[in-house]
Write a structure and sequence with these properties.
elongated, four-stranded antiparallel sheet, mainly beta, three-stranded antiparallel sheet
Amino acid sequence: MKKQAVVLTLIAIACALVPGSVDAQQSGSVVGWGSQAVLEPERLEGLVDLAAGSEHSLALRNDGSIVGWGRNDWGQCITPEPNSDFVALAAGYLNSLGLKADGSIVAWGFVNTGMLELPEPNTDFVAISAGVGYGLGLRSDGSIVGWGTSDHGLSTIPEPNTDFVAIAAGWVLSMGLKEDGSVVVWGDNGSGACDVPAPNTDFVAIAAGAGHCLGLKADGTLVAWGSNAVGQCDIPEPNTDFVAIEAGAGHSLGLRSDGSLVIWGDVSAGQCAVPAPNEDFVACAGGFHHSLGLKADGTLGAWGSNALGQLNVPAPNSDFLAVAGGREFSLGLRSDGSIESWGITDGGVLDVPAPNTDFVALATGERHCLGLKSTGAIIAWGRSQFGQCSVPEPNLDFSALAAGANHSLGLKTDGAI
């Protein structure tokens, strides 16, 4: 058996024993799944809409498919097959929703809140929204259907359940826009989110955050109410020329008619800092601590927290020979012998020791990493509370390696382990 085959076999065995995945494709690109999902750059082309969940991101492509990236521990980034004919999308806490052209809804992700138990009949839907553990669907007759966990009555629609034209699901509140321009809010009213400011007229769009509400008026002005702990209701001046709104957990997003974005509220992770040039935006979305903006040319901007890869993938996404995944991080071995790392850093797992060259194989445990050099030496980094990074001497003549959750293995050229 050739040395490379032995190495890849040992890596595959190791990653079958611990959280993670390995994939070496002929194209040299990496596709990831598990707690962090990554995408090929070409799959982020031709975008027409987007959505931001708590720590994952979704985008709708012009071919009707949905792509997802970021936190994926419940498969919230992996669109069920057939991944086609979608016309709208929504991202919640650990779930995702897609609306098909035939009016049916598809749900995927976390299974313990009832989000995957879609209402019957699953037909005639024209809009969807995803909250924390529950979903809302707007039917063509103007009625709203709710399902999933409803601790605050979020999926119980107030009467009369008629004449709705838009919906928005938040964390502890739900919103519905009536065809007469009035807004109905229900759920937890501890911060006054259910008390729509007067005059409750002339609204044309709505958005719901964790505990605050946004409303867009027909004259292009915004109204915000509810929780204002981090300034998410303090609308910047001038309050004019807005054409669309979105809400993150604690931040608010407004799109102006000139294609610029205005974002305010929680700034703790940079989610309000729109990258330059702030122009040509046609849509936006807000997650827990991150923001997304879609440009007119179909390109995507993302900023804020990237703790679970919800913003981007390692670039360029090419020339990979092998990959391995730890608890909440990933490694990729490039054809030039260097190792790329991404995900959550814990115990230094993302800090590949210098020189980052001449690696021929890699493996990951729960929170530690191994890299095999072309010289036959093993380099180990990350947590070593059980000595899993203390490579025994003599550190030479290794031909393969593997990692369990908290232990490491090395295969010598003479067949010893």
